Amino acid sequence: MPHQTTQLRRAVASSYLGSLIEYYDFLLYATASAVVFSKVFFSDLDPALATVASFGTFATGYLARPLGGILFGHFGDKLGRKRMLVLTMTMMGLSSFLIGVLPGYEQIGAAAPVGLILLRVLQGISVGGEWGGAVLMSAEHATSRRGLWASFTNAGAPSGMVVSTVAMTTTAALTGDAAFLEWGWRIPFLLSVVLLAIGLFVRSRVEETPAFLAAKAQVQRRRIPLVEVLRNQPRVLALSVGVGLAAFVVQATLTTFILAYGVRVGHSRQEVLNGLTVSSACAILGIIGWSAVSDRFGRRPVVVIGAVATAIYAFALFPLVESGSTALLVVALVIGQGILHPMMYGPLAALYTELFDTETRYTGASLGYQLAGLGAGVAPVLFAEIQRASGGPATTAIACTIAAFCLLSVGCVLALQETNRRSLVERRTVQPVNAE
Fold first, then answer.
1. Is 238 exposed, middle or buried (0-12, 13-18, 19+ CB in 10 A)?
2. Cα-flanking dihedrals φ and ψ of residue 153, to 5°?
3. Contacts of 421 (CB under 8 A, 6+ apart)
4. Which residues neighbour 268 within 8 Å (Cβ) at sequence distance 6 or greater?
5. Over the range 256-282, which residues count as b (16 or more CB within 10 Å of their CB) and which as e?
6. CA dist 433 to 189, 235, 406, 414, 422, Å?
7. Of 91, 149, 314, 376, which cross-links 142 as Cys (Cβ 3.0–4.6 Å)?
8. Nearest to 222 by CA among 125, 80, 17
9. Per residue in 53-74, pLDDT tens?
10. pTM for the complete prediction?
11. Do 210 and 141 meet the contact criterion of CB atoms below 8 Å apart?
12. 387-408 average pLDDT score
């Protein structure tokens, strides 16, 4: 029992730290795409188109995430969770370091944005494989309070946002605007190598999960996990995508899009970054707290209440940002990212884990989560294009779009069974509530 407890703690710490590092690198790109990349890698374009193009490269990372989920999910279900997590962390760290040394458009022309896109794709593949394995390492080591322990992986996302924002903010303050745009923005990317070394050390001390070892011993003929998921649980997979879609759309709205939009309506870049840092810190507590609540009351009610509340709040978000008040800007971000979004996002770690059997869990959970994650990649591009086409802020149209995604998630989560009491060891396929 003491050994099991020690391994659980190590697994949770490893998952949290690994997720923090992955999302530090991944969301560092998000911040840079909003404030730097349009000037460094797309300097030959009209400013409005450069912004769309910059967000477009940001979106490629999300488009690549399902591929990472399939690739690493396949081998994670075949060979084990731990091996894949070492590979995903290494890939992410090296990709981010190379972005930090990539020349800009003025130095190498069109090769610069092409190189940026390729490295962003590698980032997407990496984070696509990381999340599923990290969640499973915590959830499959846990014997109780699975929502709480698994949520530390999701808490790594806002933690990574805090660290990446602080890194960008500190670098900008120390170098000044001109030097920051010229070379200073590269420093946070180069620091990825240091975080990589720390993360690999922690991850090396965690054992493979008991659930995977048990399944490996019992299953005689191991089929292709992706084929098994698509054959046996296509509706569950589709519903899992719909459940998480709104959480990712809202996540991108409250981080990437609001950063660019806040500057556009008169806030300084530093004001918005400070607000994001505060709200991201609140989100860490919100994700862990609401996930613990879902252990007691179920995943479904927490996600549903969060999605409905967020759909309503979408219409208040932009007026608060447009008010010109720094205090209201921070309030808007804290309510959205620190309170409401965690209700939708926090329980997803346990929910996705509980939807699939052990021998296909890495693949099924990763694929559902990463397909839902496309919402975060598409949303900033979609919103920027709506504004460009309308010639104005178009915030009502954007709020309606956010609300529609939230209501879609409500419908999908209600179509699934409650999963918070399910054993992760026994073989039992979860079905939609209306399945025959």
1. middle
2. -65, -45
3. none
4. none
5. bbbbbbbbeeebebeebbbbbbbbbbb
6. 45, 11, 20, 8, 15
7. 149
8. 80
9. 666 666 777 788 888 888 998 8
10. 0.82
11. yes
12. 90
Tens digit of each residue's pLDDT (9 = 90 or more) over 301-349: 999 999 999 999 999 999 999 988 999 999 999 999 999 999 999 999 9
Residue 97 corresponds to which amino acid? F
**Is 347 in a helix, a strand, or coil?**
coil
Segment 201-229 shows an average pLDDT of: 76
Whether the Cβ atoms of residue 349 and residue 415 lie closer than 8 Å to each other: no
- Residue 330, both tokens: 């921070």
pLDDT exceeds cutoff 70 at 81: yes
Per-residue confidence (pLDDT) for residue 279, from 0 to 100: 93
Q: Which two tokens stand for residue 57?
A: 């490269």
pLDDT score for 20? 87
Give the residue from 253, 256, 276 showing the smallest Cα distance to 399.
253
Residue 85 and residue 382: Cα distance in Å, rounded?
32
